[in-house]
Amino acid sequence: MRVPNSVVLPVGTHVDCCQEEEVEEKRCDIMARITAMLVERKRNLAHFINNLEASEEPKFYVDQWERLKEMESCTLTILNLVVVNCTDHHDIKKLEATILKHVKNEELFPEVIRVLPPVYRQVEAAIIDISQSEEMVDHGMMDVQYLLSKLSQCKDLANLGRELLQDILRYLHRIGLVVWYEEIKHLESTVFLQPTFLITMFKLLVRYHLVQQLESIS
Fold first, then answer.
1. Which residue, 28, 49, 50, 3, is CA-closest to 12?
2. pLDDT tens digits for 99-148?
3. How far apart (Å, rounded) are the C-alpha atoms in residues 211 and 187?
4. InterPro entries attached here (predicted)?
5. Do 153 and 181 lie in a common domain?
6. pLDDT reported for residue 165
7. Are residues 196 and 128 in the same domain?
8. Domain residue limits at 92
9. Is residue 172 assigned to a domain?
10. How many domains in the chain?
11. Strand partners for 9
12. pTM here?
């Protein structure tokens, strides 16, 4: 909701836990809730903006007003919900095909045809080599400056600067090759070259019925 021109594909899982006639009913209910949520969000933003504009000292709230106006201008495209049975490989492939179809839609993603500079591909290939090397630790965490020094040792990347590397890391973060939380102060200097490690950690820490499992331990 805070990113301009966002495209969201809702995915309903655990279809195998539902009766066949329930699936369409739940799909309609979820889409209706999403639509209502967007309407409520638009109404709330307009209300907050009007309150600031009507305040006795509006000049004191310029920053807040600008942020709210920016959020109000963010468009959000909600695609039709896709339902999947995660235990069925065919359903997973169907979801993959649906995602690829949407991503290749130039009306949804005008930048899909953008040509990247060769250095982006060179850095991407070098990072894959580093992450798959024997010296790479299991957690895949690496300091940005150390990563820059490693990449600078590669052919054709000797002149790679930190600013360009950061631009490339943002791109690689968006496509899911690495994870880089540059907006979080304590993590801005760390790159996760193996995002699957984070997934494993989250699965250990954030689990269904976790509280009940912990309470069952004597």
1. 28
2. 999 988 888 887 666 778 899 999 999 999 999 888 888 888 999 999 99
3. 28
4. P-loop_NTPase
5. yes
6. 94
7. yes
8. 7-104
9. yes
10. 2
11. none
12. 0.53
